[in-house]
Amino acid sequence: MERESDYLYKIVLVGDVNVGKTYMLMRYIHGEIPKDVHNTIGVEFATQKIQLKDGGTVKAQIWDTAGQEKYKAIIRAHFRRAAGALVVYDITNESSYNNVQNWVQELKENADDDVVIMLVGTKLDIVLKNRTRRKVAKEEAKLFAEKNKMLFEETSSVQNHRVSDC
């Protein structure tokens, strides 16, 4: 009997409400963005098998967490045993970026010490259409990520730009 995958990794998506966590997840898993959008209540998750170059397989279990303050106590428990975390903010919403430090702190307090964290700016498509919509400088976010030993990327789920790189 063949095993389903060689490795299982838990990845959590965290960030304020409406920054695009669910869009990222749906684009990555299903290859499209959802037609009906709803705020995540608590935690939802999906899985994706990834074929490695050496022939092995990895199963990524991706947990989409609610961004509302009232769910923070619930989602903290889901940070444990996560191999990775994407801290997501909206590059057109300065407030969502200002809360990134709080999300990073929540991860440091509740996730395992070896969790790999990536800072992800979303909604790049909006800025590419109208540069004045950008409220968070890419250089500022990249520097924050470097100072905090995090990976960094800007994405667009609408245009499927760099989503799978995260």
From TrEMBL:
Q: Which InterPro entries does the record associate with it?
A: P-loop_NTPase, Rab_GTPases_membrane_traffic, Small_GTP-bd, Small_GTPase
* Gene Ontology MF terms: GTP binding; GTPase activity
SUPFAM superfamilies given for it?
P-loop containing nucleoside triphosphate hydrolases
Domain of life per record: Eukaryota
Q: Which PROSITE patterns match?
A: RAB, RAS, RHO
An example Pfam family from this entry, by short name, is Ras
Q: Which family is this sequence assigned to? A: Belongs to the small GTPase superfamily. Rab family.
Q: What is this protein called?
A: Uncharacterized protein
